[in-house]
Every structure is written in structure tokens, then in C-alpha cells.
Design goal:
With 841 residues, this protein is an alpha+beta fold. It has 4 domains: 94 residues, 2-Layer Sandwich (Herpes Virus-1); 125 residues, 2-Layer Sandwich (Phosphorylase Kinase, domain 1), CATH 3.30.200; 252 residues, Orthogonal Bundle (Transferase(Phosphotransferase), domain 1), CATH 1.10.510.10; 217 residues, YVTN repeat-like/Quinoprotein amine dehydrogenase (Methylamine Dehydrogenase, Chain H). Helix content is 26%, strand content 28%. The chain has a 5-stranded antiparallel β-sheet with strand order 8-43-42-41-40. The protein has a 4-stranded antiparallel β-sheet with strand order 19-46-45-44. The chain is elongated, with a radius of gyration of 37 Å.
Amino acid sequence: MADEQNMEAPECPVCLQPYDDNTIPRVLGCGHSACQSCLANLHKLNLSSSPSPYTIRCPCCTQLVKFPHPQGPTALPKNIDLLQLSFLLQNPNSAKPKSPLIKANSPPRRRFKLWFDELFSYWKKWILPYDVVLKEDGLKLDNCKIALCSDLGLTDVIRCRLVENQEVGFVKLVGFDFNESLMDYSYVGKIMVCLSRMNDSQRDEISSLLLLSLKNSRVCSVLGLWLDEVNSGFLYLITQRMTIKNESLNFGNGIEKDNKGDGGFYLGLLGVELCEALISLNVQGFLCGCLGLSCLCFDEFGHIRLDLGEALVVGANFFNCVVEGVVGGRNMDEFEVGLLIGKVTEMNVFVSPEVVFELLIRDGVAIENNEVSYSVCYGSDVWLLACILIRVLIGDQFSLEMYNYLRLLFNGVSGCENIYLKWVATINAMLEPLLVGNYASLHEILLKCLNFDPKSRPLIIEVWKCIEGLNKHPFMNHIPSLNNESVKENFDHCLALGELCSMVSDLRNRSRTSKSQNDDGKHDLSLDGENRVDNVVEGLSAGKVRCKNLQGHLDCITGLCVGGGYLFSSSFDKTVIVWSLQDFTHVHTFTGHEHRVMALVFVNQEKPLCISADSGGGIFAWQIDEPLAQQPLTKWYEEKDWRYSGIHALAVSESGYLFTGSGDRLIKAWLLKDHTLVCSMEGHKSVVSTLALCNGVLYSGSWDGTVRLWCLNDHTPLAVFGEDMPGTMSSVLFLFADLNMIIGAHENGCIKIWVNDVLKKSFKSHNGAVFSVAKEGNVLLTGGWDRTVKFQEATGGESEMNIVEVGSIACDSVITALLCVQGTLFVGCANKLIKAYHCGE
């Protein structure tokens, strides 16, 4: 602090005078600055000694730089930073005023968000556009095969490659009845809401599957996420589907007796590629836990592929059968056990004993400790591998033996391990005549794969080596060597026991919302008893929001502002109403305007004020002090002429100036302490419709389609936005300034965003004029002629800004004012109402 006080104000290097309103620094092409008076004198001297009037020597570095001739130094850019620094050092009390006029009592900034930025930035590339999925006519979505349309140019939108007419499958994830929500979500917004309702484990498992399919050529691709917003409202995981050739997976009476004599070759090819598929899954930390013949398919080259989508559906079906059969851990009678096992057997599903026990324990079934001493591990997939190969060898007879195996497990009888060994002995007797001679080693290792203890089973790599060694076809030697990476102590995901199978098996009870309407007109939207949220934007995403109508005005709402614990609203009815921010009740009404009140602003000073301006040029200052007065503290009027149409916009600076934007195309600066007119800023060619202040700059928007920038220190023009695009100009109706970002709302429904004075984004937001904009964090809220409040999220940062439409709230009338503050969204409408969307009582 002492160093700051000892600093000297920056001064001109020529005349050594500190910079101020009279000694204005101008920037030369070399980057150095000097006051404009000295630059003008230097230019005159240069004219007498140099033949070129368009150059000048910099007084600091003596570099020859361009000079605007004949305009003079006023055409050079003004060094605003030097001016501000000089002003602060010469007026130290103004740097930290005791009673700042704007921000002292304003509520703390909140970061409203519909979901975490990281969540959207990660998942956006996995979202399949709605039109990319084409459902065949006459088929139900859950069961049909559909085609992907490749003519939409979407290869840069999603991470998986789409192929024309590629058949796909559906894995139902989660659903939500969006008709019950106050917000009408966009397609992307609905998907993000569904994702935000999942827990971290569920999202992590989906993400891992998506990434797995990119790295693994032995599994069918997982293409992305797709929402059936027209029919079911469910979010689906879209997977690649290939034609399943069941006839290729059944040798019936054994490989040696195959009619073509090449049964051993096909079994070897099937076994080797199935081993490779399971090993590749294990290496990535995945266990299947449950598989059926329907999970195996062939690609266009005849190679085995694992259908991950089908594996999830099969696992979910088995999960659902178990859950339905043993709800609450109850004991099933023999008839119920028979029905349950019959369903499972019909699915041709294979599940290892430890996975079955794990499911039963999860559902409260009491099993003796000695029966569950074996945990799920990588050996569980070895058991599945053996069952599929045995099923291929034995054929339909194996289904009967699987029925007996499942009856053994579900009956939960004491000593089931001994009974299991008898079941294995039966399988051994069936395999013995089929696997003879060169295939005796395969017979031996398959029996080891069926060991009751999963840790005593051989590794999949050992099964692969056994099968590969039996096959003498030369091309088999070109299969790349495998290592023992699949041997891990812990796995990351087991599909049969994972979050997705439980989601798929039980969706509807967990995905519907309930909506109630109270007598006072408040709407409560809640979901699953989630924790309370404190702002409306997060509340809409979380499914909790209330709406309260504030009634009191008799005509269209024109402006909203907050301060001193109150909400202030202006209207065409010539009044300003004061509302409580605690319970949204009517507190007071300011009357006295003889014309429509067009704008208002709160001034936070030693005696806080609410200032309102009307279409007749009247400016009224209302003191905000208990009790609230009936008459204004003071009032004054702008002069009128034949072009005059009143005041349309207000803004207040920290240095004590009130700015008015008027119909006479001028911006006027008034001193608040005595209401004297300091200056009029001229430049716009039509009505000045909106004003905004930020970082020492005044921004003005006009019906002429431009946004002009003005210096707050000397009220001189700095720059113009939009003047270089005459063909695309549309009236600017509202400006919102936030740090280095300026958002402009236009009459043609467009929104333009400037960052650091550079146009970063221009997009059509509404069908009709946009009258107001609000912003919190990265969420833009816009409202206008089409009677909707739209929520749009700005992502990607300043360099590659993207605007994603999240959703909208429909209103009964044109939206004329928006204000997002203290966790509440206030919406002013043309039908006299103010809607307060909030969370809480």
C-alpha cells in the first residue's frame, strides 16, 4: 500500500505532464505513448525537415512510425490503461470509494449451471444426432434393427465412424418424462439431463465401453448415445450389430464326425478368436460374467466378434430373472424355482457359480459361507468360455444339463459343491467320446475350466495355446502372440454385475418424476428425493423448481433490477413497484411518472436510490429508506426536440455519473450529486435503446444496428461494433456486459457475442426480436417475441466458443425483461406479470 502511494502518475515523455483529461496519451505504431499536444507539435517540426507528412519519430525510441495526416493525433488510439492508472494515482480515494455506486449491496456472483462443464465437454462427442437413427416402419424400437444415415456429415461430431445402412442394436439406459418439466429441453439437453441423473459409476461404465470399442477389433463397436424423444423418452446406448449365424456354432455330434471333415478347423477358429476376444476385454479391465450364444456373431470376413450390446441385454435379462425370483431374499418353492430356471435356460445364457451367488447375496438370499467363499474374478470368464465351447460340441443336450446346474444353484442346498462335481462328471462323460486322439488335451483343459474354485481354473491364454496348438492350418500361425496382461488381481467392470445391467433391468420406477400444483400457483418438480438446490438453473436440471406469479402492474413490464433487499420493476403503467426478495410479496409502489416508465437502475451509495426514466424524458430518483416515500427524492427532465421519443436506457458508473440513452440518438452523462448535464455523446444514427457498463467502458446499442464504445473518463468514442456489416445490421435491443464479454440481442432474433472486442459468435436464437439477456457462469438466458426463455450454454472457451441450446421455458406472453439473481430467475412479460422461478419454499 505504501509503494502504491509513493508511485508517481505516468507522464508524457516530452512535456513531462501527468496524463489527465487535458493531457491525453495517444499510442504510436511502435507501442510508445505521448500526449496528443506534443505529438501535434512534433508533427509540425517534422513537416519542416521531412518530405513525408505521414511519418513521425517516436520521442521514446526514435523509430519512424506512421502518423495520421491530415487528421492529426486524435486519430491515434487512446491509451486507456495509462489514463486510468494516472487517474487512480492522482485521486487515491477514488480507487477504493467508501460508497461504491454499483456493487456494494449486489448479491454475490453465483455460477449457475445445468450440468458440470466437464460432463458436457466429455460426452458431447458421444451424442448421436436424432436424425442419424432411422427406424424401420412397423417395428418396435426395442427389438428392431435400424440403419444409420451417413449423408449428414457427422464424422466430425462423434468419435465413432458411422457407416451407411449399418445395423445397430439398442441398450436402454435411463428415461425421464420431460413432459412433466417446466423446461422444454432440447435434444442435447435431454441427453445431458439423463446423464446427469446417473451416478459416477454408471457414467464411468458407459464411458469405458465406448472407449473399449475403439481399441478392440474383437468386439462390436459401441457407437454412442441416442434419445428416442418422440416415442419412449429413453436414452439408449447404440451398438453395432452383425448377423448371428447360429448354424455355424453347432457341430451336434462332435468334431470328428462332422460331415465335411473340417469340424476341428472350425472349432479351432472359433475357440482361438473367442479366447482373443475375452483376453482383449480382460486386458482392458472388463469381465463378462454372463454370456449367451446370441452374444457371438461373425463379421464380413467370417471372424468371431463379441456383441457388447447383446451381452448387456443378456446380462440384464438374467439379472432381472434373479431379482424377480428372489425379491427381498424370500425362499422360493419348487414350482417357482422351476419357472425361474426355465426362463434362464431358454435364454441360452451361461453364468458361472460365483456370479450367481453374488447376485443372490445382493438380493438378500442367505447362503452358507462355505458355499460363497469364491469371489468373482477373471476365472469367471474362463468358465463361460468352456461352456460355449462345450455347447458347440454337445449341442442341445447341454441345455438340459444347464437346467440341472441352475436348479442346483438356485435351490441353495447344503454341500452344493459336491453336487456340482457330479454335474461336471456328467459333462465329462458326454465329452469323452467326442474329444479323442489329438483332442484329448482340449478335453482335459475344458474340464479344468469348470472347476468350482475360479482361481484353480486355467488362464484364458492357456486355453488359447491349447486350441491353437491343435490346429495345423498355416494361417493360424500368423495370429499375434498374446501375453499374460489379462492376469490381474482386480477387475474394473463386470458387465453382469455392473451398474448398466441393473439400470436396464429396472428403469421405469427410477426414471419418472412427479409433479404437484399447490393452491397458491406454485409448481414443485422433484426427482427421487434429491438434495435441495439453491438456484433455479441447477434446480431445473435437478428436477426441482417453483414458479410464483408476481401480480401488481397494469401494463407491460419494461425493466427489472435489485438492490437493498428489494426487486424493482417498471412498467408502461407509469409506476415502479417494489417487491420483497424474501417472499416475493408486494412492498410498495412508486407513482408520479406522467409517461411510460422505460428503464430503471439501482444506485448503491450512502443513501441508496432507485432511478427510473420515462418516455417523456423524466428522470425520477427514489430514496430506498424505511419507510419508502410516496414522492421521489428529486426529479429532472431532458430537453425535447421534434425527434425526441424519451429515455430508453439507463446506466450508472462508479465515478458518480448517470447515463441516459434517448430517442434523440444521444447519450447524456449526468452528475448524480447535482443532476447537472456534463456532456452529450453523439454518434448513433437512431434511438439509443440499451446501455451497459464494464471495465471502464460504456457500451451503447442502437436501433441503427451498431454497438458503440465510450471512454468513461472523458466520454469520448473508442470503437464501433457492426458498422462494417451494413447488409446484416439489425436493431440492437439489449446489451449485457460481463467482464471481457459483451452480448448483444437483436431485433431479428440473433445474438452476437464479443470477447475482448472481437466478434466470437453470432447465431439465431429466437423467432423474432430478443428483448433481454441474462447470464450466469456459462449459461445464457434469452427471452423475446416468441414467448420463450431459452437456456444456452457457452462451451469451448474464447478460442473455439460453441453455443449449445439446452432448452426453453414457454411463457404466456412476450418476454420483455430478464434478471437472474440470488438463485432466482425473474421474467418480466408483456401481459403485466413477473414470473419468479426459484427453488425452495
